[in-house]
Amino acid sequence: MPKLAEPLYGAGTIGPYTFEEFLEVAAAFHGTASPGLMLGGFMVDAARRILPHGILYDALVETVKCLPDAVQLLTPPTYGNGWMQIHNLGRFSVSLFDKYSGEGVRAWIDPQRLGDWPEIQAWYLKTKRKKDQDRERLFAEIKAAGRNVCLVSAIQLRRELLGRPPMGRIGICPVCGESYPLADGPVCRGCAGQSPYAAVEPRPVRGAVNGRGRAAGSAPVDRARCHSCRVCVYPNCPSVKTAP
């Protein structure tokens, strides 16, 4: 394993790509080749170069901005396959670790190393508005700096963060009729008040809901007695309290 805060030096490649190739790959996947994704590519590459060869590893990212896509482009872990964890600590950092032992390396941008790279420093510390940034110079600095602005250190992941807990039994939510993990409770989390959607009048669905906004053939729901979604049209909703 590396010593703490070990600087990395080397060629300007990002994984199997040249800098210019990764610009194209990043733009195709991310929508644009952002500075965060390009620097993130060097960070992921820095961490991966120190991992022992042949191990199965997972990833942990400490921000939701750009860096997760660098992991997904350059390593097997993705958010979809469950091998990448995102803990939004607000830090631009990524860790790669043995999925069984939790031993690994963490890479981040060292602010102390940005003095020679004023455009990267202004972007990283947000001291210059985006419209005032010199994008051409910024990307030229990122290419020239490469992994030299990264530091890595050895880490040990907490035991409870290793592996993926089984989903457990699946049931059908009595409110919305969709499947969900029964461990979440008597109704799915969406119908328990965690839905990201605004409460709106339900639209009629042929064969399910009539034009007045309730299940066909059911009695009107007293919404004043509903303590959950307040737009329920299902006659068997457990959130609707019956009158005493």
Walk me through what this model shows.
It contains 6 helices and 8 strands, in the order E-H-H-E-H-E-E-E-H-H-E-E-E-H. The protein is globular and about 60 Å long. It has a 6-stranded mixed sheet, with helices on one face. A two-stranded antiparallel ribbon has the order 7-8. The chain has helices at 19-30, 35-50, 67-74, 118-124, 135-145, 190-194; strands at 6-7, 57-61, 84-86, 93-98, 103-109, 150-156, 170-172, 179-181. With 244 residues, it is of the alpha+beta class. It has a domain at 6-161: 60s Ribosomal Protein L30, Chain: A, CATH 3.30.1330. It starts with 5 loop residues before the first strand and ends in a 50-residue tail after the last helix.
Q: What is the count of β-strands? A: 8
Please describe the biggest sheet, giving its number of strands, its sense, and whether it closes into a barrel: 6 strands, mixed
Distance between the termini: 67 Å
Q: Detail the poorly predicted runs.
A: 1-10, 208-225, 240-244
CA-based gyration radius: 25 Å
CATH topology assignment of the domain at 6-161: 60s Ribosomal Protein L30, Chain: A
Broad structural category: alpha+beta
Which CATH class of the domain at 6-161 applies here?
A: Alpha Beta
The percentage of residues in β strands lies in 5-15%
Overall pLDDT metric = 82
The helix count comes to 6
Task: Provide the CATH architecture of the domain at 6-161.
Answer: 2-Layer Sandwich
Overall geometry comes to globular
Strand order of the largest sheet: 1-6-5-4-2-3
